[in-house]
Amino acid sequence: MKIKTLFFSLFTLCLFTTPPALAQRLGATWGTGDRESEYYKIVNIPIPKDLFLETGSFEILPDGRLVVGTRRGQILLISGVFDKRPQPKVQEFASGLDEVFGVGYRNGAFYVTQQTEVTKITDLDGDNRADRFETLSDAWGFLNYHEFAWGSRPDKNGDVWVVLGLSNSYHYRAPFRGWAFRVTPDGKSIPIASGIRSAGGVGPNEHGVMFYTESQGPWNGSCSLKHLKPGGFMGHPISFEAYPLAPNMGKKPKEPQTGSRIHVEKKNVPELVPYAVVFPYRKMGQSISGFRVDNTQGKFGPFKGQLFVSDYSTSCVMRTTTEKVNGVWQGACYPFREGLSTGILAVQFSPKGYLLTGGTNRGWPVRGSKNYVLERLEWTGKIPFEVHEIKIQPKGFNVRFTLPVDPQSASNPQNYSISNYTHIYHKFYGSPEVDQGTIKVTKASVSADGLNVQLDLEKILEGHVHDFDFSKVLSKDKKPLLHTKAYYTVNEIPR
User: Fold this and answer.
1) Which band of pLDDT confidence, cut at 50, 70 and 90, is reported for residue 29?
2) What mean pLDDT is predicted for residues 343-347?
3) CATH H superfamily, domain 35-377
4) I need a labelling partner for 129 at 20 to 30 A (CA). Which of 283, 319, 360, 442 fits?
């Protein structure tokens, strides 16, 4: 390795990896926790003192019981979690599994993703204890504790989508590390994508299309939400070694150029799937994890149909919206709720309109320092003044708010601050924000109902995060936004 390259590698590794004590201080913080509680309160779910609960995944049974897959290899059935004053009762359904980071229920069976396989588990005699364990897929190799596997709930066809992390997050040391599979109900294991580094969750977005979360690291300048595109290359080329094992995927893609930009390389490498939504590092989490669509039909507040994404390191939950432009997915992320008590790995909406959160603080530093925590977020019934959604337009963006805006402040173009930046697409860990600039708003048009503002911009930059500051925009009754920031990732500009 050349001296210059070695120096840069060590420099970036020091700059973009955070020592444990420092990580807890530097985690993303919006400074709005007290105000957030006015709209969404955190409710602790009491659990038995002898239950060492480390949540890895959630599901809800048709009878309303909560299913928890744990890092300790258990499947737990918990009743009473969604009662107004919860006093849950816990029953162990199965144990002896290995880090359950995916659990779903379909046609009387549990579909469980653990480190080494996807397993179908059935209760044959109705005693709420597992009786039959059937391996549906163990198509991938496993050599290291850090080779995590994340699985979706069964989709409408009964398929489980699995994303596999690299060995130690950096290396390819076992077959299919860094790949994604679709596992059918009859056990067919179909490779669908390469190039994954270190995932944190997998499932459908608000449009029913499969996505996964990716952590910052080599070939990933920041954390992101990515479209899990069949046949796609998700960005990390070390996994190319497995292409001979996946003839359905065709020839391996062209090697991307390190030190480039992903919007440049996606023109050179047709299979490359760009980040759909970038979560700017520390501003919006540091290790994003599980996500779920708000399917509560308004019981959780004004954000129905949106995607809620958790973050492990900063113990927070964020909102995300996505849209497809010129055939490519992209969208925005928004602050939502911080102050949770542990590192969040999984979230789950309940029919009663609660957002359940769970995880662990074992293994990596997190802001939420408590052990064995189960919490839920409850909407208080009060609507916060927030940016509801940002959508791209040919000459700018349409910004929708949850409450009517003050026409005077919202129609002044100078009250909007938009900066832009992208990240280096390279083999080193993370990236600073580069190619930075500012973008002028030339016109701001407020709709008659005050809920939408059309922003015309002097330019839109492909491949850049558009970093919005709305701190000067007030509501109709002259109040500030609860959260003033939003971040839109532009892959394509509408034609």
Assistant:
1) low
2) 98
3) TolB, C-terminal domain (2.120.10.30)
4) 360
d(CA 166, CA 236): 10
Strand partners, 359: 344
Over residues 167-192, the pLDDT tens digits come to: 988 999 999 999 999 999 999 999 99
Domain map (residue ranges) of the chain: 35-377, 387-489
Cα separation, 249 vs 193, in Å, equals: 8
pLDDT single digits (tens) 240-250: 999 999 999 99
**Surface-to-core class of residue 123, CB atoms within 10 Å of its CB (0-12 exposed, 13-18 middle, 19+ buried):** middle
Write out the CATH class of domain 387-489: mainly beta
Q: Which residues pair with 201 in a beta bridge?
A: 213
Residues 6+ apart with CB under 8 A from 447: 453, 454
Angle at 379 between CA 373 and CA 382, to 5 degrees: 150
Cα–Cα distance, 348 to 291 (Å, whole number): 8
Sheet holding 232-233, edge to edge: 149-151, 160-164, 180-183, 189-194, 232-233
CB 104 within 8 A of CB 62: no
pLDDT value, residue 187: 96
